[in-house]
Specification:
The chain has 297 residues and is of the alpha+beta class. It has three domains: 72 residues, no CATH class; 70 residues, Helix Hairpins; 139 residues, Heat Shock Protein 90 (2-Layer Sandwich). It contains eight helices and twelve strands. The strands form four sheets. The chain has a five-stranded mixed β-sheet, with helices on one face. Strands 3-4-5 form a three-stranded antiparallel β-sheet, sandwiched between helices. A two-stranded antiparallel ribbon has the order 1-2. Helix 6 packs antiparallel against helix 8. The chain is elongated. The mean pLDDT is 88. The structure holds adenosine-5'-triphosphate (ATP) and magnesium ion. The site of adenosine-5'-triphosphate has 17 residues, from helix 6 and helix 8.
Length: 297
């Protein structure tokens, strides 16, 4: 048996098994029984690492058509297989994304109907408790709207449209958006931005960043509290800061990787990056959380 070093390397990986057999055992079996493996074989080691190979067996004939030997090829196709599977996975994700965007779109219309309807009922109601109930419903509807908007944003690959944004105005818009929700959760949303601070960025992206941050703050302030949206112009940059006095984030959760699960902050980092902004979180349990962003001026 003659073999090259690449084959020897693969054959030496005896910890990888397929139906309990190592690659060299499989090859031997194939040679002995003239068994042909038409499909790629997946071998696994004990730690769920994988080795995908294609085994090829060719009988060689000499000039007189007499059997002369057998040529075996082993193709390590692990990487290709992984890429193929990734592609299928990505396609699924794209499909799920499209579905989500359609669904989000479809949800928004009936929500708007519900909101108007409840507002009308609220106006006509003479009972204080009923009115309060209506307000709660409106607040919750607004919350669904924000979630849905978030979802749309995720799936939409929009081109950035950078304009000059008046930060104080933006803060006001966001405050308005959250007025009912804030009231319902006993949260005060304050804006501390001198007039005339201008930011050159995509407005809906920055708005989305604020929305994600505020959503997190609200979640962290179960019994109410204060959120401050601050803006300052420095020599070469614009500083935005959103702080809350919620429960804060424990140190082990501060690393981006260990926050797992949530989408909010990774969308925030992505959007800021696209707008030449930087992002930093400062937080400790019981000390609240500060999200700091800078933009070039
Ligand atoms: N202001 C905050 N105060 C306390 N904890 C926070 C704050 N912001 C983020 N966190 C912590 O970081 C985690 C990750 O936040 P992120 O916004 O990425 O995801 P999420 O809020 O859990 O989910 P999603 O935003 O997708 O609804 C949160 O679950 C929370 O534990
Ligand atoms: Mg979040």
């Amino acid at each position: 048996l003659l073999s090259n070093s690449r084959a020897q390397n693969l054959l030496a990986k005896s910890e990888y098994r397929y139906e309990g057999k190592s690659l060299s055992a499989l090859l031997e079996e194939s040679l002995k029984n003239q068994k042909v493996f038409y499909d790629p074989i997946r071998l696994l080691d004990g730690r769920s690492r994988r080795l995908d190979v294609e085994l090829g067996v060719w009988r060689l004939l000499d000039e007189d058509q007499k059997p002369w030997g057998v040529l075996c090829t082993i193709d390590d196709i692990t990487y290709r297989k992984m890429m193929e599977e990734q592609a299928v996975q990505d396609e699924k994700l794209v499909y799920a994304g499209k579905l989500a965007a359609e669904l989000a779109h479809e949800i928004r219309n009936p929500l708007a109907g519900i909101r108007v309807g409840v507002q009308v009922v609220e106006r006509h109601s003479s009972s204080e408790t009923d009115r309060k109930l209506c307000e709660t419903i409106i607040g919750e509807v607004d919350r669904i709207n924000l979630l849905v908007e978030n979802l749309c944003h995720l799936t939409r690959q929009r081109k950035l449209q950078k304009t000059l944004i008046d930060v104080a105005e933006l803060y006001q818009e966001v405050s308005l958006l959250y007025s009912k929700i804030a009231e319902n959760s006993h949260i005060e949303l304050l804006s501390d931005a001198p007039p005339g601070i201008l930011l050159y960025a995509d407005k809906s992206a920055v708005k989305q960043v604020l929305i994600n941050l505020i959503n997190n703050s609200i979640k962290a302030m179960k019994t109410g509290g204060t959120i401050v949206m601050k803006a300052r112009a420095q020599e070469s940059r614009i500083l935005l800061c959103l702080s809350d006095d919620g429960e804060g984030i424990p140190p082990e959760k501060m690393k981006a990787k260990s926050r797992n699960g949530g989408m909010g902050l990774s969308i925030v980092s992505q959007l800021l990056q696209k707008n030449d902004g930087t992002f930093r979180l400062e937080s400790a349990p019981g000390k609240g959380t500060k999200a700091m962003m800078t933009f070039p001026r």
